[in-house]
Amino acid sequence: MSFKRVINPNFVHKKGQVTIFIIIAIFLLAAVAAFLIFRNGLPITAQIPAEFQPAYNTFLSCIEDNAQTGINILESQGGYITLPDFESGSSFMPFSSQLDFMGNPIPYWYYVSGNNVAKEQVPTQAGMENQIARFIDERIRNCDFSSYTNTDFQIHTGEPTAKVSISKNKVSISLKMDLSMNKGNESAFVRNHKADINSELGNLYASAKTVYDYEQKSLFLENYTIDVLRNYAPVDGVEISCSPLTWDANDVVANLSSAIENNIDSLHSGNNASDYFSVKTPVQGVGFLTSPSWAHNFEINPTEDSLMIAQPIGNQAGLGVLGFCYVPYHFVYDVKYPVLVTLSSNGETFQFPLAVVVQGNNPRVSLNGTAVSTTTPVLCPNKNTPITVNVFDSNSNPVNADISFECIGEKCEIGQTNSGILSAKFPQCVGGYVVASADGFATGRYPFTTTQSGSLNIVLNKIYNENLNLKVDGNAYNGNAVINFLSSDGKSRNAVYPQQKTIGLSEGFYTVQVSIYQNSSIKLSATTKQQCVNVQSGIPGVLGIPQQQCFNINIPEQVISNALTGGGKADYPLTESQLKNSNTISIDVPSLPKPDSVEQIQQNYLLFDTNSLSINLA
Question: Domain boundary at 460, 487, 510, which?
Answer without folding.
Answer: 460
